[in-house]
Amino acid sequence: MHTDLVAALDIGGTKIAGALVDGHGRILHRAQRATPAQEDGETVMRAVEETVGELAGSPLWGRAGALGIGSAGPVDASTGTVSPVNVPGWRDFPLVRRVREAAGGLPVELIGDGVAITAAEHWQGAARGHDNALCMVVSTGVGGGLVLNGQLHAGPTGNAGHIGHISVDLDGDPCPCGARGCVERIASGPNIARRALENGWRPGPDGDTSAAAVAQAARSGDPVAVASFARAAQALAAGIAATATLVEIDIAVIGGGVGKAGDILFEPLRKALGSYATLSFVQRLTIVPAQMGTDAGLVGAAAAALARQTDTAAAV
Predict the structure, then answer these.
(1) Span 221-272, pLDDT tens digits
(2) Which CATH number applies to 129-290?
(3) Hey, which of 113, 137, 222, 241 has its CA 20 to 30 A from 90?
(4) Distances in Å between the alpha carbon of 70 and those of 95, 101, 116, 182?
(5) What class does CATH assign to 5-116+294-315?
């Protein structure tokens, strides 16, 4: 059977997006539902099934040879289950089996959302042409993924590259994950905003206390806002340098809401990197903003499905 398309799902705490994607990463058909994140697991699954059903209603569906899922994590690709922190109704939920049933038996490939975004940036975005890369998503949380030797390195469970939970401050604040001083505890959007507020920053008349508002204040020269971003940049630099030292990456790509802060983040980040990435083999490491935008999760899930198809075809 000639298959030149794959189906893709991007499942997060806010929305469940679906698409049919061709071999060049182009989205040909879309479907979307809001994630009923606070409902029970079956209600969440119904929204997934409706999204898949809408894709299956497209005349293009018959050309799809596999389905890729990028899901909020933790995921476990070895068992096909997911336990997303922000979807409490799903704990060890058999997502792969349920999606395969909804998709009429198509092969299903599951990866974490950080890995999915990495796959997209490597295939079509800022890490294109790089064989060894780290891609990070810095937003409500901090996630990531690795490309090593030209291949997506998801690890046995699909969570490899989860840089948000590298500890960069031995005596730092306890992180909800159970460790201390994690990159996420210092560099995520809510933590940038929390730190600014604790140190005396005050929002404008609109009362906006988001990291984007802190970034705006930093651009206007507010010293507390500038310092909160500098601290986040230092944590990111330490985590990126540790990763580069361990596995020899030559580019780090940063996306997510906080990544959109621009120079307020990237200037102190590049400066801090110089203090941490000191060994000869990591000195050429470059840091760039992500390019793929909001469709990264879908395009990356499609890339994983296409890679599975290629592997399967090669094995036959």
Answers:
(1) 999 999 999 999 999 999 999 999 999 999 999 999 999 999 999 999 999 9
(2) 3.30.420.40
(3) 137
(4) 11, 17, 5, 23
(5) alpha beta
